[in-house]
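Sequence in, structure out. Go.
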Amino acid sequence: MTGGAGTILVVQHEDDCPPALFGDWLAEQGCRLDTRRPYAGDGLPDLEGYDGLLVLGGPMGADDDAQHHWLGPTKERIRTAVESGMPTLGICLGHQLIASALGGQVVRNPFGQQLGLLDVGWTDNARDDALLAPVATPRRGVQWNDDVVGRLPDGATLLACTERGEIQAARFAPRAWGVQLHPEVDTAVLRPWAASDQGSHEAAGIDQEALLADIDGARDELDAAWRPLAASFAEQVGQFRAGRRQ
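Output:
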């Protein structure tokens, strides 16, 4: 990794949405994660001394600032990171928070909940993107979300979308990205999410056990697909760290 290991501020939104596999992969690349859980009383530090910002997923809405006191400060950290050029990555809710922080719009998906293993529809812009180029080939990712980014902020670049036009990945600024999918999860992480959605899934006729079995059966595929994203983000973090030390 260019410039050696860096320190990443990780914003976690609830116990059931940890950095999980993605955190492990970043650690493999030599990154140090400082995971803050503001819902449990952790403070959100300013970004001085950090080399990257990772904002995780969660069940709340991106604009539920009044109900979740840390969402507004998280958006402030996102704007500060963007202004400084600090590498920033948002996953699911984190992706939506970046969009909201920078003037985009987050909406309830009119097509309903996105669930399970979905193909990623890369755009041509992803092929030479500084972060996503290494993974911008046919692959599947796990999605488990009700909301989507309905409108990108001015200046953002669409990097992936579904056939119906739902945004799956975007570059919000030269070093700020978001992915709607969950590269970090395995079935151990997903089971509490499934329990939370059990009633609505039963009503919709969704077989949760079959869904989780499909994801578990694709474990090797998913690891091979998304470990390179962690390596690519670690590379961005290392470059930023090296630049600050010059």
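Check: Helices lie at 20-28, 71-84, 93-101, 187-196, 198-204, 208-217, 219-245. The mean pLDDT is 96.
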